[in-house]
Amino acid sequence: MHDYQRRFIEFALEHDVLRFGEFTLKSGRTSPYFFNAGSFDTGSRLSALGGFYADAVAAAGLEFDVLLGPAYKGIPLAAATAVQLADAHGRDVPWCFNRKEAKDHGEGGLFVGAEPRGRLLVVDDVITAGTAIREVIALVDGLDATVAGVVVAVDRRERGTGELSAIQEVERDHGIAVTSIVTFDDIIEYLQETGRFAEHLPAVRAYRERYGVA
Ligand SMILES: O=P(O)(O)OC[C@H]1O[C@H](OP(=O)(O)OP(=O)(O)O)[C@H](O)[C@@H]1O
Ligand SMILES: O=C(O)c1cc(=O)[nH]c(=O)[nH]1
Asked: For binding orotate, which residues are annotated in this chain's numbering (predicted)?
């Protein structure tokens, strides 16, 4: 694990973004941990979060034309990443987000912000079973655009529909590069290294055994 990954985990723990307990996920799985990006709930926290994303995008060397934040939680994440790419990396990139319901008055449409065209880099919070990412791929189908990459804070490294991880499936089926700030393995390593939240480690390991990939 890199130092910035350790700092990111501590940053998430400090603001109760990363929590341990019992949580029902979108996939229906019951997880012993949860990453709630919505709890980065002040300007400075969102700014710092955007900094982690922007650094991950820059480090991965991902080629893209437009950032896309899927509704809902992807929206502030894409915005914060765009701000930090401009301020800290000197890259003023277009960004946009979608509405969950198309709007038929005013400016109308499904997308807000820059036109989603060319190579899109999707900015979201986590990947679990990969449903949300597949929804975005379907959303841009028919546009003059392709999803070229995905960046998330946490790759939960869980199985998708088969034995591969959700990310491996998305990479295999759509040729999309996926990058994350941290993975579930980094979180487990952090718990082991520091002895923090030791009471949750058995449930975390059992979950990894049940839903994780090798
Ligand atoms: O990989 P998956 O199994 O799809 O799970 C992960 C997705 O689930 C949640 O989104 P949700 O649809 O709840 O949307 P929200 O952003 O509106 O909270 C979360 O924000 C991820 O995007
Ligand atoms: O799979 C999910 O629904 C999910 C997992 C997680 O850690 N955080 C989140 O917001 N959603």
From this structure: 34-35, 128, 156
